[in-house]
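Support request, priority: normal
Reporter: lab tech (M.K.)
Component: structure prediction queue

Hi team, I submitted a job for 3-hydroxybutyryl-CoA dehydrogenase from Rhizobium lusitanum yesterday, and the status page still shows it as pending. I've pasted the exact input below so you can check whether something in the sequence is tripping the parser. The sequence length should be 292 residues. Please let me know if I need to resubmit or if it's stuck on your end.
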Amino acid sequence: MSSLKTIGIIGAGQMGCGIAHVSAMAGYKVHIYDLSQDRIESGLATINGNLARQVTSGKTSDEDRKAALARITGSNDLNDLAQVDLAIEAATEDESVKRKIYAQICPILKPEALLATNTSSLSITRLASATDRPERFMGIHFMNPVPVMKLVELVRGIATDESTFSAAREYVTSLEKTITVAEDFPAFIVNRILLPMINEAIYTLYEGVGTVDAIDTAMRLGANHPMGPLQLADFIGLDTCLSIMQVLHDGLADSKYRPCPLLVKYVEAGWLGRKSGRGFYDYRGEVPVPTR
Ligand SMILES: CC(=O)CC(=O)SCCNC(=O)CCNC(=O)[C@H](O)C(C)(C)COP(=O)(O)OP(=O)(O)OC[C@H]1O[C@@H](n2cnc3c(N)ncnc32)[C@H](O)[C@@H]1OP(=O)(O)O
Ligand SMILES: NC(=O)C1=CN([C@@H]2O[C@H](COP(=O)(O)OP(=O)(O)OC[C@H]3O[C@@H](n4cnc5c(N)ncnc54)[C@H](OP(=O)(O)O)[C@@H]3O)[C@@H](O)[C@H]2O)C=CC1
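Reply from support: The job had stalled in the queue. We restarted it manually and it finished. Here are the results:
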């Protein structure tokens, strides 16, 4: 445990739930906020399911699972975040959504509370400017699935205090994660490298070089990736993938980051990957079936 005791999570999606899961397992009290109570209920059920998986595989005990769950609360009332020491925003990858959240939450948080974002790509300095506490704001970028992935990127904004950075480092270390420090450039390190690879896989599909199955098999067995790039895109969420490519394209002004038109089309169709039931694969049956 670090000097922070209570963690607030904004957004009960796949990342918010993963961060709540590992924080509660490390002994923190956790409060999750989302817009709808249904979202929170399904988020808590996901956390319970993932904790149960860890019990089955012998990674944790049933007592620890129960104790972790008892440390997590959730509500759709922002005022319930008034007592947290660190709030981690893990809402949709859209700058206007995040700015709106900061405007609502800053007057509620304790003045000394730290605020972090799990953004995959957006400028930490620019997001900090939408808060009342740029010196107590930074990027804490977890990887998906949070309970399994070892890495967390830490990103300072121009105004981030050293004490904020140290507190974040202490918190992440207490979760038994490994830290890399990235400078505040579009998409930081992991996504600067990973997302153009995924985008290229979508161009490979778009140009008819291979089918979904051929591309994923090629990268799984030919490059030893644990998931094919199209399977991974579906896992991350195609809306998130597109937002990251747009940030890279706009922020670095280089045509090599142009989002593939097929990615745009899938997002426009509402085919967002696993979370919406369909993306490069259709997940509505017993086994995922390629959609192209
Ligand atoms: C977009 C961004 O901003 C940044 C990002 O996050 S980019 C995405 C980064 N993530 C990746 O690249 C993930 C790549 N994929 C993988 O590493 C693996 O496919 C995977 C770990 C997700 C699944 O591994 P797998 O071997 O195919 O499946 P599976 O056997 O079900 O899972 C392996 C273990 O992880 C556990 N696991 C998988 N998902 C889990 C979850 N959500 N919660 C808890 N445990 C989970 C399983 O229980 C299993 O544990 P045991 O070994 O103890 O049995
Ligand atoms: N997916 C990934 O692999 C990774 C994602 N990230 C980043 O983490 C963040 C979350 O991503 P992810 O969990 O995948 O996304 P999800 O789409 O799974 O979850 C986002 C959640 O935020 C909620 N939300 C939207 N607006 C608000 C609001 N105003 N207040 C509170 N909650 C809100 C959404 O609710 P609703 O559905 O009702 O809109 C949803 O529950 C993004 O910034 C993303 O870039 C970082 C690392 C990896």
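Residues 50, 53, 57, 59, 120, 143-145, 147-149, 190-191, 194, 226-227, 232, 236, 240 surround acetoacetyl-coenzyme A (ligand 1) (CB under 6 Å). The mean pLDDT is 97. Let us know if anything else looks off. Ticket resolved.
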